[in-house]
Amino acid sequence: MMDFDLSPEQDAIRKLANEFADREIAPGARERDRGEIFPHEILKKMAPIGLLGGPIPEQYGGMGVDYISHAIITEAIGRADSSVRTTLSVQISLVELTILKFGTEEQKRAWLPRLCKGEIIACFGLTEPEVGSDATKLRATAKRDGEGWVIRGRKTWISNGSVSKLALVFANADPDKGYKGITAFLIDRERSPYGSAAIHGKLGLRSSDSSELILDDVRVPDSARLGEVGEGFKIAMAGLDSGRYSVAAGAVGQAQAAIDASITYSTQRKAFGKPIAGHQLVQELIADMVVETEAARLLVWRAGHLKNKGVPSTRETSIAKLYASEIAQRACDGAIQVHGGYGFSDEFPVERYWRDARVNRLYEGTTQIQKLIIGRFATGIDAIG
Ligand code: CAA
Prior knowledge:
Helices cover 50% and strands 15% of the residues. By secondary structure, the protein is of the alpha+beta class. The protein is globular and about 80 Å long. The chain binds acetoacetyl-coenzyme A. Acetoacetyl-coenzyme A (CAA) is lined by residues 90, 124, 126-127, 133-136, 158-159, 233-234, 237-238, 240-241, 314, 363-365, 369, 373, 382, 384-385.
């Protein structure tokens, strides 16, 4: 049986998240983008109403919402500002949910309430200067040192890296074993300081923080290890199953923002004696955006339905992530077309949407990596390695 209705709880969350996004996030997005200003103030307001810990159970400080609600919140934030949504995706989906799944009781109690309260921001350190798509080949190392470990390496394009107080870092504890040596660590920046360097001059997501992580012999106790030695690659992939879901939901939000802006503009702007929305080719642009956005939303919710059931959803998550990322870019491009010359200036938000949408096709696994994952499921043939 299929049910496309939202439950009263999901509908209430949709209203809460959308009202918050419209009131607190959207109005300052242009200034934050212009000034590359990280949204600390917004995060402080999101935490008390539960938006930094949506799917985390209440006993660990979250709201305990289901995965469709999680997507609804993420879409609402993504509709207002993708930079804020990126911070949220890393905090909740890549870090909190990964600790929830693989952490010891002690690790969950130590970190989750603080993350949900926004007391600390976290980052996910997988990508390296010379290792992106082929994550099995990462070069950072973790060497045993008495009771603890010494971690050495460089990570790059790490969202939240400079503002983080906690880094979930993947390093190889036994390079002879290849990816089966990769091990995950929760590095507490206060106790085990690591360096960072912010990356500037980005095309989009200018108010989010993207940084290099500098791990020069960072000493951590064995209690910082997340999961077993050698289990790190699977932990990273499971984390990305959550992260990609969040990116997909955020991309649907961007596409919806492009539609909303296009409708507002095209029903007010006149050309050839009538609102431009009355011209067939403008309606075609908007209709294409509407169809693709609604299809993407359903793909996200289908993946969420599987996550709610606790069954594997890698395939469905990759499909949703790929499709939502691609259509968000098209929708934002279409929105610029609807706006004409005005769409080329930051007087209107659509140029920012377009710049911000570009990264969805790159981070948390490029569109090409999603195709290889989907193709492998379809054919049974591994074209990756
Ligand atoms: N969940 C759990 N385990 C998984 C898994 C998943 N989704 N996917 C794979 N695994 C397991 C496999 O079962 C396998 O286990 P065994 O050794 O027991 O057989 C192991 O992991 C190796 O998996 P694969 O054979 O699939 O590895 P591969 O090399 O063929 O493919 C890949 C891996 C899919 C290409 C992967 O490297 C990948 O996803 N690359 C993209 C990396 C990426 O997304 N980076 C984004 C960085 S994070 C980011 O962007 C954060 C930010 O700050 C914005």
